[in-house]
C-alpha cells in the first residue's frame, strides 16, 4: 500500500519486489506516516456490545482500518459510531448471518471515496491516496462444509470486482478465506512462512492470487507460530493444539514492499475463535472534502420566538429586493438567496452528540476479560458480569427513551414522538447503499460510471418521438390569480416536505406578510398571463429509493422527483381551477386520487360485486392488469389534446403545455448530479397536477377502448366491466370470450396511447363456486398466468372468495408490529394513554 512520489526514473520498471517497483515507472518513497490495516472474523457484531468491543480492540491495537468477517448485519449501508465509520454488506433476506464490513477511524473515513456492497460475502471500499488510490476488498469465504459451487461463485464475484479496478491503484484483498496455504514457498505469490499443511481450498486461493498478481503478505514475514495462526479449531485443547492460518491479507505484487510488518494478535478478545491479522503499511492518504448537503432544522419555526425572529429577518432581507419589473428568473433568484441566508443564520441544526448506552464500567470489564483470556473459569465469570451490565444499561436506555416519548407527547411534538418510537423499536435505518449493474449485468464501480448509467437509463425511460409543441393562444377567459387563492394555497401547503432544486422550504411561504403576498400575486399573474415558466421551475431533481431489498439495476429503484415548492404553490392554484372540468370527465369506477373515495371504497366495490355474483351463481372472469411504468409513459401530445377537449382556460392549458415541453431533470447520487436529461414523456412526478392528468388520460383510454362493447357484468341493467384505482385495474366479464374481447381492445388502445401491459405481472383469475379448468386468456399472443389468489391494493383476493386468509395475514402483520414494539408496551415509564395511542397508530393501522 505504498504511495508513489512523482519522481522521474529511467523509464524501465524495476523487477517485481524491488524497492519501489510500480507500473508508472516511478519510485516508491518511504513515508513517515504508518497506517495499520487488519482483518478479523468476529463471529458476530449483531449482539449488544460487540461493536463497542471491536472498536475498543481497534483503539488498543492502534488499527486504522479493520475488515470484519461474519458481521451478521442484514442489508447494506454505513453508520457513524464512537468516532468511527462502519461500512457493511449483508444479506438481503433480513437474516443475521454471513456479512462483511469495514470499520475505519474518523481520520481514515475522511479518505473514503466509494463503497460497493457486492454480496453478503464481498464488499469494496475505495479510499483516496497520493498519487494513486487504494481499494480494499473484504471477503468472507464459505466454510469447508459448503458446496464447491459457493466457492466458485465467491471467486467469480471477486474477479468481477478486480477487473473493474485500475491496475495502477493499490488493491488489498483480505478476510477469512477458509483456506490453508500451508508452510513453504510454492511461488512468487505465496511465501515460505505459512502455517500447517495445505488443503484443496488453499490451491484455489493460490491460483486466484497468481491470476490477479497478488501476494499473500502474512506468508512473507517470519513470525513465531503464535503470531501466524488466525483460527483455533473447535478441537483445540490444552493437550491438543489445533491452530490454523486461514485469514489472509493480499496486495498487488508491485506494492508488496509497502507492507513493513504483519502478524496476528492472539491476545485480542471479542469472544471469537479467530484472532485479528494486522499489517503495517507506509501510506500517504488524501483527506477528501466531501460534498455534504447542509441540513436545516425547520422544526425550530414551531417555537414562536424563533419564528418571529426568522420572520422579521426574512421580511427585512427581501424588502426592496423583490421586483416585478426585472426578469422573473432574476427576481426569484433574489428570493432564493434570501431564504438560503436566513436558513444559514437561524435554522442550522444544533450539534448534539448522540448519547450511547455503553458505559466505561462495561468497557473496563471487557479489558479485564481480555487479560484473563487464558483462565477459562475467570473468563466465564467476567463474561457473565458483562452480559448482566449490558442488560442493565440497555434497560436504562429504554427507560430514558420512553420518558422522552412522554415529554414530546406532552408537547404535541408528533415528529419527535415518532422518531423516538423508532429508536425504541430499533427501526432506525442506517444509511442504505447498494451496488449497481448495467443492462448487460456488468458491475459499475466508479461514480462517473454510475452517473453515466443512470443518465442513460433516464434518457431511455423518458425518451419519446414527441411532435413539436403546438402554440396555444392564451386568451383571457377568466380572472387572473387572486391574492386570496395564494393565501388558501399556502394554508393548504404541508410542512416538512423535501425542498426542490431551489432549496426553498414550504415553511417560508407562511412567513410572508401582506406586502410580499402582493408581490407574489403579481409574479404569479405575470407567469399566468404570459405562459413563460421560470427556468428553475422546469428542472426537477430525482432521488432513488430501492423497491426491494438487494436492488441492483436501475429498474429496481424508484425515482422520486423533487421540485420547487414555489412551483407547487402555483400549480395548486391551477389545479383548483381545472379540477371541476376534469373531474366531470372521469367515470365513477375510477377510485384513485379523488375526493371522498380511496382504496377502501375500491376494495369494498370489488368485494360486494364479486360476492353478489357468487350469490347468484354468476361466474366472474377477471384480469388484474399491471401496466409497465404507466405514469412515465404518458404521451404529452395526446395529454394536451385531451385537455383541450375538457374546455379548460387557454391560459391553464398554455402553462401545462409549456411546463411539459421544456422540462429537464437530473438525478442526485451522493450529493453529486448526473447531466441534465430531457423529459419527453410521462406525467411530472410529485406535481399537483399529475394525479388528475393521469386519471383523465386513463379515462380516455378506457372510454375509447370499451365504447360499443356489451361485455361485462350486469348491474341494474348496465354493463360494468372494470374497476380502477389509478393504474391498478381489474377488468371482468361473465364469460371468458367476453373478457378476451375486452382485453384485446384495452391492449390495442393502450398501445396507441403509449402504455404497455406487463404480461408477466398481469394475472388472470376465475371466481366461481364450481371448479373451471381448460380456460386461457391471451394478451398480444402471450398467455396470461392464471392464479388462485392475488394481492390487489394490499388485500388478498382469491378464487374461492374466502376472506379468512386475508384476516390471518392482517393479524400476522399486526402481531409482527406489536412484537417489534414490546419494549415500549412493557415499559413502566409510558402512560396507558400513550401506549394506547401507539397501539392504534402502529398496530391497529395494519389490521
From TrEMBL:
Residues 1-24 are annotated as: Disordered. It comes from Cacopsylla melanoneura. Keywords: Coiled coil. Residues 526-797 form the Reverse transcriptase domain. This is Craniofacial development protein 2. InterPro entries: DNA/RNA_pol_sf (IPR043502), Endo/exonu/phosph_ase_sf (IPR036691), Endo/exonuclease/phosphatase (IPR005135), RT_dom (IPR000477). The keyword Acetylation does not apply. The keyword Coiled coil applies. GO terms for biological process: DNA biosynthetic process. Residues 379-406 form a coiled coil. Residues 8-24 have a biased composition (Low complexity). It comes from the Eukaryota. PROSITE patterns: RT_POL. GO terms for molecular function: catalytic activity.
Amino acid at each position: 500500500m505504498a504511495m508513489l512520489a512523482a519522481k522521474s526514473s529511467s523509464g524501465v520498471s524495476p523487477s517485481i519486489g524491488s524497492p519501489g517497483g510500480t507500473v508508472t515507472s516511478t519510485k516508491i518513497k518511504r513515508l513517515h506516516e504508518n497506517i495499520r490495516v487488519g482483518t478479523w472474523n468476529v463471529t458476530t457484531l449483531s449482539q449488544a456490545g460487540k461493536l463497542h468491543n471491536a472498536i475498543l480492540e481497534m483503539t488498543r491495537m492502534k488499527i486504522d482500518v479493520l475488515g470484519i468477517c461474519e458481521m451478521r448485519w442484514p442489508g447494506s449501508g454505513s453508520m457513524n459510531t464512537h468516532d468511527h465509520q462502519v461500512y457493511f454488506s449483508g444479506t438481503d433476506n433480513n437474516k443475521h448471518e454471513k456479512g462483511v464490513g469495514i470499520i475505519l477511524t474518523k481520520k481514515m473515513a475522511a479518505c473514503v471515496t466509494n463503497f460497493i456492497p457486492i454480496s453478503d460475502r464481498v464488499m469494496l471500499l475505495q479510499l483516496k491516496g497520493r498519487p494513486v488510490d487504494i481499494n480494499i476488498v473484504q471477503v468472507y469465504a464459505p466454510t469447508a462444509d459448503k458446496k464447491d459451487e459457493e466457492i466458485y461463485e465467491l471467486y467469480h464475484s471477486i474477479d468481477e470486482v478486480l477487473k473493474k479496478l485500475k491496475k495502477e491503484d493499490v488493491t488489498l484483498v483480505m478476510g477469512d478465506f477458509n483456506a490453508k496455504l500451508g508452510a513453504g514457498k510454492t511461488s512468487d505469490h505465496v511465501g515460505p512462512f505459512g502455517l500447517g499443511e495445505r488443503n484443496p481450498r488453499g490451491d484455489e486461493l493460490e491460483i486466484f492470487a497468481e491470476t490477479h498478481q497478488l501476494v499473500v503478505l502474512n506468508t512473507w514475514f517470519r513470525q513465531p507460530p503464535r503470531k501466524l495462526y488466525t483460527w483455533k479449531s473447535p478441537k483445540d485443547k490444552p493437550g491438543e493444539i489445533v491452530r490454523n492460518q486461514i485469514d489472509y491479507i493480499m496486495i498487488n505484487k508491485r506494492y508488496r514492499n509497502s507492507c513493513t510488518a504483519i502478524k496476528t494478535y492472539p491476545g485480542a478478545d471479542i469472544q471469537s475463535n479467530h484472532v485479528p491479522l494486522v499489517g503495517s503499511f507506509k501510506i500517504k492518504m488524501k483527506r477528501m472534502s466531501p460534498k455534504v448537503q447542509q441540513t436545516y432544522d425547520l422544526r425550530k419555526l414551531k417555537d414562536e420566538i424563533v419564528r418571529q425572529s426568522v420572520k422579521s429577518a426574512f421580511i427585512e432581507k427581501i424588502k426592496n429586493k423583490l421586483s416585478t419589473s426585472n426578469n422573473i428568473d432574476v427576481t426569484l433568484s433574489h428570493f432564493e438567496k434570501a431564504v438560503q441566508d436566513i436558513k444559514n443564520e437561524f435554522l442550522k441544526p444544533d450539534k448534539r452528540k448522540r448519547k450511547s448506552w455503553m458505559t466505561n464500567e462495561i468497557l473496563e470489564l471487557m479489558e479485564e476479560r481480555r487479560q484473563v483470556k487464558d483462565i477459562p473459569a475467570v473468563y466465564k465469570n467476567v463474561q457473565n458480569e458483562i452480559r448482566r451490565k449490558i442488560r442493565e444499561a440497555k434497560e436504562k436506555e429504554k427507560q430514558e427513551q420512553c420518558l422522552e416519548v412522554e415529554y414530546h407527547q406532552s408537547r404535541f411534538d408528533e415528529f419527535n414522538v415518532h422518531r423516538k418510537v423508532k429508536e425504541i423499536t430499533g427501526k432506525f435505518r442506517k444509511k442504505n447503499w447498494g451496488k449497481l449493474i448495467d443492462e448487460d449485468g456488468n458491475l459499475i464501480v466508479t461514480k462517473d460510471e454510475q452517473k453515466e448509467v443512470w443518465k442513460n437509463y433516464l434518457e431511455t425511460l423518458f425518451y419519446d418521438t414527441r411532435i413539436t409543441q403546438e402554440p396555444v393562444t392564451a386568451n383571457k377567459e377568466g380572472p387572473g390569480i387572486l391574492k386570496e387563492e395564494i393565501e388558501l394555497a399556502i394554508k393548504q401547503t404541508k410542512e416538512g416536505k423535501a425542498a426542490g432544486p431551489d432549496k426553498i422550504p414550504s415553511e417560508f411561504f407562511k412567513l410572508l406578510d401582506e406586502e410580499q403576498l402582493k408581490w407574489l400575486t403579481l409574479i404569479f399573474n405575470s407567469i399566468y398571463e404570459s405562459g413563460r415558466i421560470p427556468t428553475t421551475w422546469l428542472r426537477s431533481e430525482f432521488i432513488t429509493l430501492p423497491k426491494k431489498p438487494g436492488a441492483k439495476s436501475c429498474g429496481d429503484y424508484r425515482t422520486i422527483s423533487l421540485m420547487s415548492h414555489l412551483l407547487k404553490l402555483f400549480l395548486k392554484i391551477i389545479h383548483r381551477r381545472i379540477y371541476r372540468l376534469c373531474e366531470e370527465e372521469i367515470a365513477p369506477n375510477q377510485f384513485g386520487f379523488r375526493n371522498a373515495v380511496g382504496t377502501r371504497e375500491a376494495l369494498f366495490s370489488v368485494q360486494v360485486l364479486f360476492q353478489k355474483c357468487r350469490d347468484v351463481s354468476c361466474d366472474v372472469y377477471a384480469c388484474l392488469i399491471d401496466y409497465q411504468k404507466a405514469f412515465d409513459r404518458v404521451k404529452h401530445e395526446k395529454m394536451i389534446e385531451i385537455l383541450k377537449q375538457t374546455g379548460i382556460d387557454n391560459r391553464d392549458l398554455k402553462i401545462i403545455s409549456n411546463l411539459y415541453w421544456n422540462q429537464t431533470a437530473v438525478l442526485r447520487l451522493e450529493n453529486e448530479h448526473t447531466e441534465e436529461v430531457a423529459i419527453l414523456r410521462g406525467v411530472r412526478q410529485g406535481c399537483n397536477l399529475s394525479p388528475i392528468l393521469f386519471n383523465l388520460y386513463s379515462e380516455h383510454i378506457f372510454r375509447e377502448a370499451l365504447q360499443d362493447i356489451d361485455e361485462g357484468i350486469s348491474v341494474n341493467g348496465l354493463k360494468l366491466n372494470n374497476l380502477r384505482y389509478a393504474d391498478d385495474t381489474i377488468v371482468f366479464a361473465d364469460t371468458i370470450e367476453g373478457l378476451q374481447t375486452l382485453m384485446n381492445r384495452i391492449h390495442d388502445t393502450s398501445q396507441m396511447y403509449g402504455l404497455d401491459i406487463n404480461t408477466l405481472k398481469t394475472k388472470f383469475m376465475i371466481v366461481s363456486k364450481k371448479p373451471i379448468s381448460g380456460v386461457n386468456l391471451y394478451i398480444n399472443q402471450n398467455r396470461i398466468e392464471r392464479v388462485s389468489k392475488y394481492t390487489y391494493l394490499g388485500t388478498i383476493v382469491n378464487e374461492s372468495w374466502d376472506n379468512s386468509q386475508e384476516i390471518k395475514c392482517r393479524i400476522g402483520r399486526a402481531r409482527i408490529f406489536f412484537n417489534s414494539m414490546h419494549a415500549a408496551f412493557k415499559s413502566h415509564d409510558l402512560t396507558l394513554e400513550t401506549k394506547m395511542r401507539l397501539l392504534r397508530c402502529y398496530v391497529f393501522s395494519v389490521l
